[in-house]
From TrEMBL:
Residues 248-515 form the PEP-utilising enzyme C-terminal domain. The active site is at H187, C478. Coiled coil: none annotated. This is Phosphoenolpyruvate-protein phosphotransferase.
Length: 545
């Protein structure tokens, strides 16, 4: 083994090693000459090429599920966007440039507009570049950039993967993933987790690594060179762990193991994985592409489709979390310098109460239709006063149980008062980390601060756990922290009463809790709380069990 070792942020657990395949970043910029003899015939090639790319992405979406399917469908829609095609066609005829060059320039204009919009929109620049390169490759009859056909099981190394690339990954041939960029809550991370592929992101220098074979450890966040002659090692699949389906420690202390869902496919996958219910239904995921507010009936039908697999089981429906990384066109705020600190989540409803009331009416209807045991919760709540306002709206809609997310540090610090206003809380560790460390959750450069093992974050969670215990009210965690089997024990020891995660982590977390007692969890929690660093917190928790 070589001593070449790099570290990043482990975002999907497991360890695997094998030959390196580097993902091609982008195609070469097409030249603007020679110009076409017949610009109209040249322009006419663009639409079919875009359609072919969209059809291929749609076909990939059909054989995918959950987040992967949604992302592929969204990317296919970008490829088929008539605005992109017609702008490129006009460039060909007006400037007499080749079709490939015109697509390059038109996509560049779109990318620039997205980048200057900032936040979630800026995140989509990678998607438009991916679509651009695929259409150009189609026009030129060359292989598209991105993940090549893997002839044998391999470890993928990339700057960052386009969502469509990640969504198309086959866990049978992709042993592990290491990227130079990306954060723990980026698309790459969420999808790698849902596919069960070990992954480390924000590994500075991984692209320049000369090693022919590497080992990727998604638990410790390390990447190291290994002997290329050694046989490939596949990840030990956490998903195969034994679990009887009831979330509890070995001494029967109950911790509900729930799932995070965004659409009917996720809900079916969660039910199949044995989730005891849903701890977070992200309703805004249904409307990321909607231009207008969906009607109450449309919402009711959409929610019912997600609730149905959970008849008789608890489901927490989150009201629209619009803004920042998840903008909804029909709830767009004024231009804001810092969208993550702006009018997002519940704040949108203060000025547009009708939107909230109509959504609550639809949720109440879907709850009755589906027979699921529905509660609702609000995102981005900062004060007890806001929590009380939300609870009033929920009661007025005839829904029996109201809660709020704790994802703003102020809400964690006043958890006791917040809990007085509602029936339960659920800690959103993704945003709570972002706001606690003043570190954009989408940004690779600050990814280490968004690690849920940060002792600063654990101490805030401890405050909420204590408040929940004192009030005797349920306190969940529905951020990505809940999906880590070892951290699940620490969260249990901090007083959390339910954990909600992607479907593929359900079994591993259930099994991890079943293997230890509540006293073990409490000891692990105390050990992690007292640790000075992320690595020390993880090691301390590991040392207990
Ligand atoms: C669960 C959370 O919400 P989202 O990831 O949808 O912002 C969170 O912030 O932890
Ligand atoms: Mg959040």
């Amino acid at each position: 083994m070589s001593d070449e070792q790099l570290s990043g942020v482990g975002v999907s657990p497991g360890r695997a090693s094998g030959p390196v395949v580097k993902v091609t970043e982008s195609i070469t910029e097409p030249a603007s000459s020679p110009g076409p003899d017949d610009p109209y015939a040249e322009a006419a090639m663009i639409a079919p090429a875009a359609q072919a790319v969209a059809a291929r992405l749609d076909a990939m979406a059909e054989s995918a599920a959950g987040d992967a399917a949604t992302i592929l469908t969204t990317t296919a829609a970008m490829a088929a966007d008539p605005a992109l095609v017609s702008q490129a066609e006009q460039l060909v005829t007006a400037q007499r440039i080749p079709a490939a060059r015109a697509v390059y320039e038109a996509a560049g204009n779109f990318a620039q507009a997205l980048a200057s919009a900032g936040g979630y929109m800026a995140e989509r620049v990678r998607d438009i570049e991916d679509v651009r390169d695929r259409i150009i490759a189609e026009l030129l009859g060359i292989a598209p950039p991105g993940v090549p056909e893997l002839g044998r099981p391999s470890v993928l190394v990339a700057r960052d993967l386009a969502p469509a690339d990640t969504a198309g990954l086959d866990p049978a041939t992709v042993l592990a993933l290491a990227t130079e960029e990306g954060g723990p809550t980026s698309h790459t991370a969420i999808l790698a987790r849902s596919l069960g592929i070990p992954a480390v992101v924000a590994v500075r220098g991984v692209l320049a690594m000369a090693a022919e074979a590497i080992a990727v450890d998604g638990d410790t966040g390390t990447v190291e060179a290994v002997d290329p002659q050694a046989p490939s090692v596949a990840a030990t699949s956490a998903g195969s762990a034994e679990w009887d389906g009831k979330g509890a420690t070995s001494d029967e202390h109950r911790i509900k193991v729930l799932a995070n869902v965004g659409n009917p496919a996720d809900a079916s996958a969660a039910a199949e994985a044995g989730a005891e219910g849903v701890g977070l239904f992200r309703t805004e995921f249904s409307y990321l592409d909607a231009d207008d507010e969906p009607s109450i009936d449309q919402q009711r039908a959409a929610y019912r489709a997600v609730l149905e697999p959970f008849r008789g089981k608890p489901v927490i429906v989150r009201t629209l979390d619009a803004g920042a990384d998840k903008p909804l066109a029909f709830l767009a705020p004024e231009i804001e310098p810092n969208p993550a600190l702006g009018v997002r989540g519940l704040r949108v409803a203060f000025d547009r109460q009708g939107v909230l009331d109509r959504q609550l009416e639809a949720i109440a209807g879907a709850s009755a239709d589906s027979g699921a045991d529905v509660s609702v919760m609000a995102p981005m709540v900062a004060t007890a006063e806001e929590a009380a306002w939300f609870a009033e709206r929920v009661a007025a809609a005839g829904i029996g149980s109201a809660g709020v997310m704790i994802e703003v540090p102020a809400a964690a610090l006043t958890a006791s008062e917040v809990l007085d206003a509602v029936d339960f809380v659920s800690i959103g560790t993704n945003d709570l980390a972002q706001y606690t460390f003043a570190a954009d959750r989408q940004l690779g450069a600050v990814a280490k601060l968004n690690d849920p093992w940060q002792p600063g974050l654990l101490r805030l969670i401890a405050l909420v756990g204590e408040a929940g215990k004192a009030k005797g009210k349920p306190t969940g965690v529905c951020g990505e922290a809940a999906a880590d089997p070892l951290l699940a024990r620490v969260l249990t020891g901090l007083g959390v009463t339910s954990l909600s995660m992607n479907a593929s982590s359900v079994r591993a977390v259930g099994a991890s809790l079943a293997a230890v007692s509540l006293a073990d969890c409490e000891q692990a929690a105390q050990a992690a709380l007292g640790a000075p660093t992320v690595a020390a917190a993880r090691a301390a928790a590991k040392g207990v069990s």
